[in-house]
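Q: Structure tokens for this one, please.
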Amino acid sequence: MQRIPGECVVLYAELRQRLETVEAMRSVSCLSGEFTTKSVKAGRYHYFQATLPGGRAQIYLGPDCEDVRRLIADFKSGRHDAQADEELVQRLAAQIIAGGVIAIAPDQSRVIKRLSDSGVYRAGGVLIGSTAFNVIGTHLGVQREAPLRTTQDVDVAGCSRVSLAVPDLKADVPAAIESLKMGFFPVPRLSHKEPSTSYAIRGKTLRIDLLTPARRTTTSPVFIRRLNAAAQPVRYLDYLIEDPVSAAMISGSPCLVNVPQPARFALHKLIVSQERSVTSADKKRKDLAQASALVQLLKEDRPGDVRIARAELEKRGKSWTARLMRALKEVGVKL
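A: Here is the predicted structure, written as tokens:
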């Protein structure tokens, strides 16, 4: 891993702070749409035509009165502020990219941004996989000197259990994907009775996979109410996505995403590498390379994070610890 320039680290911190402020101050001014007025007999009535992931919806506001007119005025003044905020974060991202930081690929970033705008991460979704590795690297102030060969998968994990730390927010993943108009279609499963957990585009490698922690031995898709979508159960995922961190995705249109804690991401990669079959040798090498790079960095910069992540992993049982030790021996790293 190589350190990104110091000025980019400062710009990243400012970008992340700006994005958090924009997220916290979301209001009607951030909605995409416009006000309309209808005259019925002697009265005038106001509506807001909102552009939502599932299409346009007309929201009734009420008859013409001072309060409704004030709302419209606040919206119009706020729209300029929202536009100014968007231009600012795009400018900060452009400066970071100009400083040498590798941006997320356009198609991937477009999907991730739409999921963000649709509230997927606010509703508890967590970006995982190789894309998350790149986001985590920038978040830590580093990037690989020679980027690993990666797929164009966008992997999002969600939990079916309601967390008290997350308000009862909801998102609609299928509607958000459909609104992209990129040609995504649900990938059919072997059993046509089971709902799809993946979306793909014919003729392209870009793919969206929805995952969730496995409970017991179930392998059937699990419906995630918060995301209005089914997800594929995966072992060890509960450890990975517990207490995620908020990070900025660097692209032409940056956004906030949830990603795993860096130390948990690294140790999870080590664990998963031991589950790879002989036919998945390339994936195993990538797992070990990403984990080794992160562990070495964290041991130098944030050793306490590694100790905490390891302690939490060891609480999961002896089999987890045994897999971790085998993987560490393979990469020649000591914790």
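A few notes: The mean pLDDT is 88. The two ends are 18 Å apart (CA to CA).
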